[in-house]
Design goal:
This protein is an alpha+beta fold. It contains 4 helices and 11 strands. It has a 5-stranded antiparallel sheet with strand order 1-2-9-4-7. A 4-stranded antiparallel sheet has the order 3-8-5-6, with no helix packed on it. Strand 5 and strand 6 form a beta hairpin. The longest helix is centred in the C-terminal third of the chain and has 22 residues. It starts with a helix and ends with a helix. The mean pLDDT is about 95. The structure holds fe (ii) ion (FE2). Fe (ii) ion binds next to loops.
Length: about 190
């Protein structure tokens, strides 16, 4: 059964293992294997948002709720990560640095109960292809908010410093759209 505090403790303990990312993927696979338990502990993902479940220098755990159709531009992390989906779907598009900016390098669609490890050099864009909110737990091997990283303009593929405030605004815009739709349909 998923318990937030126990999950954090287990992730912290996993940092001492020989392969922390693999150990944490195992924990996350177990956790998202019972998605209803995560919903019970964290709530139903209804609104887009980033909830920080845990933050330290060597570990960040986020509860990410992607609004319907939400798109996050290509960015890197500069630390390993593990993604696990507990409700909905997340499409990850991967990129590589090329001679002339980024080149697309495959995509992976993750559904409920799926996990994926991401290397520290990975550049990815994330899309929620559904017309409902997707809930995911993202675990990072460092302080996600304090580490400078890059994002790329989706049309020019030009590299810029990552702008956390801009990303957070995307979540608010997604919620504003949801509200507008709710007013139209409801
Ligand atoms: Fe990411």
């Amino acid at each position: 059964m998923f318990e937030k505090e126990r999950f954090i403790e287990e992730c912290r303990a996993a940092l001492n293992e020989a392969h922390p990312q693999a150990a944490i993927r195992e924990l996350l696979t177990k956790a998202v294997g019972e998605p209803a338990q995560i919903v019970r502990a964290l709530g139903e993902p209804k609104r887009a948002g980033v909830e920080t479940l845990y933050r330290a220098d060597d570990l960040t755990i986020l509860n990410l709720c992607w609004g319907p159709g939400m798109v996050i531009h290509p960015h890197d992390h500069r630390m390993w990560a593990v993604i696990g989906i507990y409700g909905g779907r997340e499409v990850n598009t991967f990129f590589r640095r090329g001679e002339h900016g980024l080149t697309r390098h495959g995509a992976k669609e993750l559904s409920t109960r799926d996990t994926i490890p991401l290397g520290a050099a990975i550049i990815h864009a994330v899309t929620n292809p559904l017309d409902r909110t997707t809930g995911a737990i993202h675990v990072y091997g460092g302080d996600f908010f304090a580490t400078p990283r890059s994002e790329w303009d989706p049309s020019t593929l030009e590299e810029h410093p990552y702008d956390v405030a801009h990303t957070l605004r995307l979540f608010e815009e997604s919620n504003a759209k949801l509200g507008a739709n709710a007013r139209v349909t409801g």
